[in-house]
Write a structure and sequence with these properties.
The complex is a heterodimer.
Chain A: H1 2-50, E1 64-67, E2 78-85, E3 88-98, E4 106-113, E5 118-125, H2 177-195, H3 197-202
Antiparallel strand pairs in A: 1-2, 2-3, 3-4, 4-5
Chain B: H1 3-14, H2 25-31, H3 35-58, H4 68-90, H5 92-98, H6 109-117, H7 124-154, E1 156-157, H8 162-165, E2 174-175, H9 184-187, H10 189-214
Helix pairs in contact in B: 1-7, 3-4, 3-6, 3-7, 4-5, 4-6, 7-10
Classes of the chains: A alpha+beta, B mainly alpha.
């Protein structure tokens, strides 16, 4: 008898598992293109924020390489998008991560010209303290704009520090760790992009296949 | 009172999921830093609750007692995943700010609690109504707490409403007080605990006053306990 009830219950459970996972799979199928479009849209919006659209004329999200260089932080490989004007290299849009934030990783996008000057920086993801560390976000404060036009002149460029450490970037009242982590990471990523500028442009394009 | 009225009273006030049963506190405390987030999670929870209640009620006669819990869990998990996918597709910005708390709706005991205590014994129509009322009660507490924390912490209301409601909602943003620095305690988790405690206190105050009016002779009485599930 116990086997009979096991069989029956097993069958009922299986049926429910099939129906529920089936409906999830169906919804996933239906929403997949829209979710992908949303993500791409979001990516494009971020990419166009860090570099003026007049500087390049290729589709940024269709032109990228990947790199696992330690300068770009943990959890690699990191995507690097390549901006070109009439097929000539203009800038690299480097996605990099710093683990030195106050709580968890900070994901950063930095656009770098060939001469190691910075076109723009955005924080794409972080878990910093609301009201203090989250001022690195463009929505909360203009702080990230202070990177615009800055040039990194050496690997340990002392200007690329927060003021407390003798550099040129403001820290926030009550939050030094977050800006310090961001500034250091931006400096390392910029220098890496500068050093490997031609090599990265010479690599094969990994994003060619992506469609919108 | 008719059954519908009783259910409405239970869900919104007397047996409110957040204030009396104290269920689903994890998402409740975590996302209520702004009204928009609170409303988003409230609506998501409401939809899951109605969906799971109706489904559980429809299948209640085919599910043997021994395996009802795994079946309910599967139904709820499926609804949460579907809602999560839909939010990802249609309200991308909000999906990003609610983050991991959407999957956590699964662990909101209010949902399985209602499935077990009510929907598994009653008709789909009544169960749907129960889901709506319980969900509304939960969402209302979320929104009140979100409003309190947003006003005290940021000095605004409906900041970021366009993530949930579309571009026109940018106009909804109200700046009430301008702070140079945000009042951190309200935004951080302790503020959520304090806020929820205050709301519960206010609710209890009203209950006590009503009781005192109804029976002028207050005999000592054991504290009423919330009944989450009933025995089967």
């Amino acid at each position: 008898m116990i086997f009979a009830s096991m069989k029956k219950n097993g069958a009922i459970l299986t049926a429910f598992a099939l129906v529920t996972t089936g409906s999830v799979a169906l919804v996933q199928q239906l929403t997949a293109p829209r979710i992908e479009a949303q993500e791409k849209n979001h990516l494009m919006q971020t990419l166009t924020q860090v570099i003026p659209t007049s500087k390049y004329n290729n589709q940024l999200y269709l032109d990228c390489v990947e790199s696992s260089a330690p300068e770009l932080g943990p959890n690699g490989p990191h995507r690097i998008y390549r901006a070109k004007l009439d097929e000539k290299p203009v800038a690299l849009l480097v996605q990099h991560i710093t683990p030195e934030g106050y709580s968890g990783n900070i994901n950063i996008l930095t656009a770098v010209y060939n001469n190691a000057s910075i076109a723009g920086v955005r924080i794409t993801q972080h878990k910093e303290t609301p009201g203090l560390g989250d001022k690195v976000e463009i929505k909360k404060a203009d702080w990230v704009l202070s990177f615009n036009g800055q040039q990194v002149t050496s690997e340990n460029d002392s200007r690329f520090n927060v003021k407390k450490d003798g550099g040129e970037f403001d820290q926030f009242t009550g939050a030094t760790i977050t800006p310090r982590a961001v500034v250091k990471s931006v400096r390392a990523a910029t220098w890496y992009a500068h050093q490997n500028f031609d090599a990265l442009f010479a690599q094969d394009n990994l994003c060619q296949q992506e469609t919108l | 009172m008719s059954e519908f009225k009783t259910l409405a009273h239970e869900g919104l006030w007397k047996n409110n999921a957040a204030l009396v049963q104290l269920l689903g506190l994890c998402p409740l405390l975590a996302v209520t830093s702004t009204v928009t987030n609170a409303l988003g999670l409230g609506i998501a929870t409401l939809l899951v609750l109605v969906g799971s209640n109706v489904t559980v009620s429809v299948v209640r006669n085919w599910v043997p007692k021994d395996i009802r819990i795994p079946v309910f869990v599967m139904i709820i998990a499926a609804f949460v995943t579907i809602i999560e996918l839909l939010m990802n597709a249609f309200t991308f910005g909000l999906y990003q700010s609610l983050g991991i708390f959407i999957p956590l709706i699964v662990t909101n005991c209010a949902i399985i609690g209602r499935a077990e205590a009510y929907a598994s014994k009653n008709s789909p129509l009544l169960s749907a109504w129960d889901g709506i009322m319980m969900g509304l009660g939960f969402a209302a507490v979320l929104v009140i707490l979100g409003a309190m924390r947003e006003v005290i912490g940021q000095g605004t209301l409906f900041d970021g409403a366009e993530l949930l409601l579309g571009e026109w909602a940018t106009a909804l943003r109200i700046s009430i007080i301008d702070f140079d620095n945000q009042f951190l305690v309200a935004i951080l988790p302790p503020g959520a605990f304090l806020g929820l405690g205050l709301i519960i206190a206010v609710k209890n105050y009203f209950d006590e006053r009503k009781k005192a009016q109804a029976q002028p002779d207050p005999s000592p009485e054991k504290a009423p306990r919330a009944r989450v599930t009933s025995l089967t």
